Amino acid sequence: MAKSMPTPTFQSPAISSIPALHAFDSHSSTWQSSRDRINFYFKANRIETDEDKKALFLWSVGDTTYNLLESLISPRLLTDDDTKFIDVIKLLDVHYDAKRNITTSTYDFYSCYQKSGQPFAEWKAELCEKLRHCAFTTSALHRRPQDRALRDMYVIGANSNKGRQALLKEQDPDLETTEKIIQLAERLEEDVRHFSAPNNHNDYSVAKLHNRQRHQKQPDHNSFKKDNYKACETCGSNKHLRSKCKYREFICNFCKRSGHLERICRQRNEKQNSTKHITTIFKLNNLDRIEQLNNYSCTVPLKVNDHDIDFELDTGTFNTIISIYDWYKLGSPTIHPSQLELKCYSGARIKIKGECYVTVQYQNKNFQLLMIIVNGKSEPLLGLKWINILQLDLNSLIHTRIPIEHHINKAYDVSKLH
What we know:
418 residues, alpha/beta, 4 domains, two-stranded antiparallel sheet, extended, Retrovirus_Pol_polyprotein, Peptidase A2 domain-containing protein, Peptidase_aspartic_dom_sf
């Protein structure tokens, strides 16, 4: 009787019921968020050994991150037994979790205005994302909120870029350290300006050479042209050397120092050049409407990017101009390079930050208009281009706000007014 052959039993390979991890993509999520989800995944699936964690993580992390880890751990290998899971995580922590500067994050937080049409919930989420980098509760100054506010404003509102750069090198300085850095930066700038100031020793050398040649041969003084000398630093004339100037012992009426006249006093000229960055010109066509306009400015309120801005009417400029500080208030719209060159009435060039398009609301209409952003502090100026596009009634704006003075102190000939 034949023996029956035993039926072979086939056992299917064990398949893990654990759902796979998602590959990490630095463009769609942060490493901190992905790392937290990985830890939750291991806890939920009771994966506890370091070897299992490392194998599962490296298998699912994705080609881009795996190649990055191979470069970061070199010359060691990811497959080495002494390479632990915690070592791999620390490599990615260092690579992706570089701390942002606290003051820069604080500036980004306070500059995060609600955009036009943005729901409140979305704006709140954006604020909270920026808030977690500001370290308001963990900063070295978290127990001294006034010191923290002052320190942040020193960096945000500093006029010197070099001083701001020096401050941004510090991660979380206290108030005293911040003030010392600012003062040191100011002294360095003063020292640089001191070295770049023109030396006056050339006058003395030229004078000695001139005297020595005069003893050797008497030249014909009439043969010298006035452009043979540079402008005298005592009186401004170019007809003689400073050493021969008859005003060298005179006292300046402005700074009360001897050695020069008031008309070329450096302190006087520097004060005049710094009085006002951009001025406004009004042309008068009628003698009976001569008015005191220096203390008057006609302002036009406009809503720009949903922010109320009071512009000073300026018919002396074609473009509408705002300062970099007002640009921040408008939500920091995208700046494009500008090919313009602006000059104030003293002839000095005005540094332009760039130009940007903004939404202007006027008389229930929306306009997309171009404005110029300049460095430094200046009142918002409303130029002729905007005036023409918005069709502003200048007669109504000016004559309804300017009180006319009928009293004339002095009358001039018409030809002298042009």
